[in-house]
Amino acid sequence: MANERPTQGVAGRVAIVQGQTRATLALSLAFVGATALALVIPHRTGWWLPLHLFLAGALLLAISAATQLFAVTWAAGPPASNRVAAAQRWLLAGSVAMLTASHELRWPNALTALGGAGVIAALIVLGQSLSTTVRAGVQRRFDAAVRGYICALAAGMIGCAFGIAMAVGLSGSALVRVRAAHLTLNLLGLIGLVIVATLPSFTATEARVKMSPRADRRGQDALLAWLCLAIVVTTTGYLWGRQAVAAAGLCAYAAGLVGLSGMLPAIHVKQIRWAGPRLLQLGAGITWWAGATLALAWQTAHHHAAFTQPVLGVLVVGGYAQILAAALAYLGPVLRGGGHERLSAGFHTTRSWFGLLAANVAAVAMAVGAHTVVVVAVGAWLLDTAARASMLATRPGRVRPAAQR
Fold first, then answer.
1. Which of 57, 66, 180, 300 shows its CA 20 to 30 Å from the CA of 29?
2. pLDDT tens sequence across 227-272
3. For residue 345, what is the DSSP state?
4. Quick one: angle between helices 322-336 and 60-75, nearest 10?
5. Which DSSP string do the residues of 182-203 spell out, in sequence order?
6. Phi–psi pair at 42, nearest 5 degrees
7. DSSP 402
8. DSSP string, 63-92
9. Under a CB-based contact definition with an 8 Å cutoff, are residues 358 and 379 in contact?
10. Cα–Cα distance between 152 and 148 in angstroms, integer?
11. Could you give the CA distance from residue 397 to residue 347 in angstroms, rounded to a whole number?
12. How far apart are CA 261 and CA 16, in angstroms?
């Protein structure tokens, strides 16, 4: 079938990967909806369920979609076949559904472990697809980013293996240590390294400027090596029960995020006028991410419990959810397509100052433990996002005057 062997022309390859991306992002948004329901409907596992629905479901599906889209468009390589893309998408979604349902409903631990193993398998398929695309690509500028993706996927596989070990019966101090390592590898490793590898290119794309000259291959490779070392030190410190070592690793990781900020392109008033809340949400997300990492380092150094609910909430809502929202606000109009005028109208639709405000109110409320404010702010943010997504999908949108673009 022609659409199974995408070897003819850039336009055809991009159209194929955009179709795959739309399908995967639709599943990602379904998990966002499930996360919202888990925040308000009483259930047994507390914050565990919405966290895993969002991180393992919504965010990993979005990562699967975005990384493959960027690999094809930026490396000018062939996409995975539709069958492989669909298999990876549904393997990941089904595995997350199995592990969350089995844990919440107290099904046999073997089913939870099977769900975790399915997530690992989906990450392996994603890594193979990305490597194949970039190796066959014409442009070499994406090589550094894909190295970051492969390191991220490796961290995620080990982190998921720790999660399986927790599911099948760890207890006591071993459970505490392995839980901290599991969260480090999946949050700071899998998700964090994907974002780090993407932002130098994506921020320039979002702002319509050139990449920073500091984000060359050597700079990106050095940053990746630094962050990987920080993750290894942190994980090792937690597993050995050496809190000072883990805290040092976390401080090094936070320093790496400062280095990431230095690799992003300079943003001026012109870019803020055009992209507005999308760019500000990226910046706010990085700031909350670094702040949560430093708070975690302080807790760890003072022998408090690692990854407490406030720190997790700030990292997930203030950091990763904001970065995801900013990315989708850009990708949504691009994937809708329809020409320059329709693209400009789409970008206008996804400019949400209200969403930016609600997200940061939710992050502050997470930090101070104001649960009711968190639910209200997150709910308002999701409703605003859903309304804009609906307008993007069903209306051509209002085209902004040329002087305002």
1. 180
2. 999 999 999 999 999 999 999 999 999 999 999 999 999 888 888 8
3. H
4. 50
5. HHIIIIIIIIHHHHHHHHHHHH
6. -60, 140
7. G
8. HHHHHHHHHHHHHT-PPPPHHHHHHHHHHH
9. no
10. 6
11. 9
12. 33
What is the pTM for the complete model shown? Answer: 0.91
Residues 6+ apart with CB under 8 A from 200: 145, 211, 212, 215, 220, 260, 263, 264
Q: Cα separations (Å) of 154 from 82, 125, 213, 227?
A: 24, 12, 28, 14
CA terminus-to-terminus distance, the chain: 41
pLDDT band per the 50, 70, 90 thresholds, residue 6: very low
Q: How far apart are CA 280 and CA 207, in angstroms?
A: 11
* Tokens 């472990």, located at residue: 113
pLDDT at 10: 56
Following CA atoms 295, 297, 299, 305 in sequence, which dihedral angle do they give, to the nearest 10 degrees? Answer: 110
Q: Provide the pLDDT for residue 397.
A: 47
Q: Write the single-letter amino acid at 150.
A: I
What does the alpha-carbon distance between residue 117 and residue 136 come to, in Å, rounded to a whole number? 29
**What is the per-residue pLDDT across 207-239, written as a single tens digit (0 to 9) for each?**
888 998 998 989 999 999 999 999 999 999 999
377: Cβ contacts below 8 Å, ≥ 6 apart: 358, 359, 361, 362, 365
Judge residue 357's burial from the number of C-beta atoms within 10 Å of its C-beta, 0-12 exposed, 13-18 middle, 19 or more buried.
middle
- Please check whether residue 189 is in contact with residue 293, taking contact to mean a CB–CB distance below 8 angstroms: no
CA gyration radius for the chain?
20
CB atoms within 10 A of CB 107: 14
For residue 154, how many other CB atoms are within 10 A of its CB? 18
Q: What DSSP string describes 275-324?
A: HTHHHHHHHHHHHHHHHHHHHHHHHHHTTPPSS-HHHHHIIIIIIIIHHH
- Residue 59 has a pLDDT of 94
Q: What is the pLDDT of residues 379-402, one digit of tens each?
A: 999 999 999 988 988 865 444 444
